[in-house]
User: What shape does this take?
Amino acid sequence: MVTRAGAGTAVAGAVVVALLSAALALYGPPLDAVLERAFSLRKAHSIKDMENTLQLVRNIIPPLSSTKHKGQDGRIGVVGGCQEYTGAPYFAAISALKVGADLSHVFCASAAAPVIKAYSPELIVHPVLDSPNAVHEVEKWLPRLHALVVGPGLGRDDALLRNVQGILEVSKARDIPVVIDADGLWLVAQQPALIHGYRKAVLTPNHVEFSRLYDAVLRGPMDSDDSHGSVLRLSQALGNVTVVQKGERDILSNGQQVLVCSQEGSSRRCGGQGDLLSGSLGVLVHWALLAGPQKTNGSSPLLVAAFGACSLTRQCNHQAFQKHGRSTTTSDMIAEVGAAFSKLFET
Ligand SMILES: *[C@@H]1O[C@H](CO)[C@@H](O)[C@H](O)[C@H]1NC(C)=O
Ligand SMILES: *[C@@H]1O[C@H](CO)[C@@H](O)[C@H](O)[C@H]1NC(C)=O
Assistant: This one.
């Protein structure tokens, strides 16, 4: 307990110092005192919120135990991967394993399967997504899966998207949690009804994907000065589906609460970082729903899971950047998952 509080304070301190120096550099001496006070009050408050929410994430993590059998800590399915894109589904699926899932499946187009298998012997790869039976082929696995991550490396081929639509429908019918990213979000922007009101869905749009969804669902441009309000409104308009807007700070809402994750990352953004987020979120969503609302102190389990995945991704980015600087890539970030996880959640 003592070391946990210590680590939290150290991280919090670093954030305050970074923010204050940024403020001072920007505004110069006359505004110093005022800004400093305003900043430290506001930041101290949001850092306390962050630390409280991290504590809730720690509550949902299942203890490692020798009495459990394989598969109990999570069997995750990634739906994505086509001829053009094979990296994204690999990154999402391997991230799920590294975070603590026992098994990670990839349901991809047939051309992508040998490539993804060759990246890793640790994944189970099903070359079914472009088959006429795709929906049935995935559905028969659903009773054995705890969560689906839909979209990494999916592409926009009509036939594939039709199959994914069917997969989302059967997943909903079986109450399987779904994390939707990348071209999965493109599909949702075409047909918001697919996930409208589904409380076990989490959407993880970047800025472009967010604007497209906002446009499609609220039929008007968003107010770029009010990102909290925009995320809240999109979530509500989708029937309180959890939305995670990725950005300089990640903004999360379930239509009721808005959380901000500003865990220190780095200014390096590489393609693939979103796959680390969606893959780890698949596992955390399963753990959070398993733990239930008592463990999350009344907050939405999905929101707590999303906060955990955002913090973890940013911490991985931070650690990888310390070692590799500009040359940091997603593989370097994934190599940090173990250390980042224990720093945030097990210290
Ligand atoms: C749990 O909820 C109570 C009441 O809302 C709040 O006072 C407390 O700070 C929360 N604890 C954590 C760890 O978030
Ligand atoms: C979403 O949450 C808001 C705030 O609690 C509530 O007013 C609204 O009725 C909810 N919408 C749905 C569809 O449940």
User: Anything to note?
Assistant: The radius of gyration is 20 Å.
